[in-house]
UniProtKB/TrEMBL annotation:
Belongs to the peptidase M50B family. Its main location: membrane. CDD domains: cpPDZ_EcRseP-like (cd23081), S2P-M50 (cd05709), S2P-M50_PDZ_RseP-like (cd06163). This is Site-2 protease family protein. It comes from Isoptericola chiayiensis. The keyword Transmembrane helix applies. GO terms for molecular function: peptidase activity. Pfam families: PDZ_6, Peptidase_M50. Its cofactor is Zn(2+). Gene3D superfamilies: 2.30.42.10.
Amino acid sequence: MNILPVVVGIVVVVLGILVSIALHEVGHMVPAKKFGVRVSEYMVGFGPTLWSRKRGETEYGLKAIPLGGYVRLVGMMPPAPAGTRPGNGFFSRVIADARDASVSEIRSGEERRAFYHLSTPKKLVVMLGGPVMNLVIAVVLLAVVFLGIGMPTATTTVEEVGADSAAATAGVQAGDEVVAFDGAPVEDWSQLVGMINDAAGEQVPLVVERDGRRVELTVTPEPAERPLTDDDGYPVTDDAGEPVMVDGALLGVTSSVERQALPVSSVPEAVWLQVSGTAHAIVTLPVRIYDAAYEAFTDAPRSQDSVMSVVGVGRAAVDTAGAEDYSVLARVQLMLMLLASLNIALFMFNLIPVLPLDGGHVVNALYEGARRSVARARGRTLPGPADVARMMPVAYVMFVALIGVGAVLMIADVVDPVRLF
């Protein structure tokens, strides 16, 4: 294996992940600053700070562990409601400490710049800004892949003719472009395959274009089992990864493959497929984590759609960069699609409605807005900001759970990684 493409592939994917994280945080920071909230820190990564520089009132920096990032929005949590009695339990102290830390960041005279003073719509814009940025990144990457680079597509031009095949007997030659079959015009290769399957054992007219002129031939497709293909011409496989075979016919030719730009509609279609697939994966996450661990530590093969950690994404990048049977352009395309999938995953995962994820803050803002709407409708005094600090125990439990899940998946990705090829 040529080591240079592998190194380049790893660097590209790592930089892609860092840029995705950085832009996610930009999605939070820009609207927060626009609405007057003081942003004291913008950091990519966690752990010890490798580099930082302060510009204006914000410190920008890069930390040692590139597994996330954060922006520190001053005043995320309001002070304790009037009359609140401090508790003595562990979680009571956690809640009190979170409130105190949030309030301590607010400078004298800048109380109105605290995040908790924002209206519900503005809070939603700030908290959804990060996930939406990941969605935008995914759309841009898929647009580059589908509209710019193009996808390998089987054409109606014959690449090879099998010896002693029905096509060879009829006089079909490599380079012929199939124009019509059995009197019907041929628009694409998958359509031609369907026509051939329906004409098993029958003599049918075939029109090809050869050297700028049309040639009329007669072919008799040979009955045979053949792989079932989807609308795009790709083989359909069963749960074991084996091709699904169906009764059909063979002409004995292969098509030439060219890169062709897909229609603009293919981008939202691909985004929707990935969003819905990721949503299903999140809903079934406990089962999928168990399956990944079971497959990693038993003789069961690791499925290609298994959930992965960042280690698994890195291994996938290595596999992609080292795929010698693929051209450089094809490998670049696969890496861009890998990064697009990662950004879709970040978009969906951050919308899970629990703290410390963005979705938890979204739910809190909606709850706060609903309370104020009800009070406004009843002519009552509007309630103050929602007491986010009370959800800190949930955030702590979720944080520990995420660490545990990440550790299990990382071990699984080292022991038995997902194989793309």
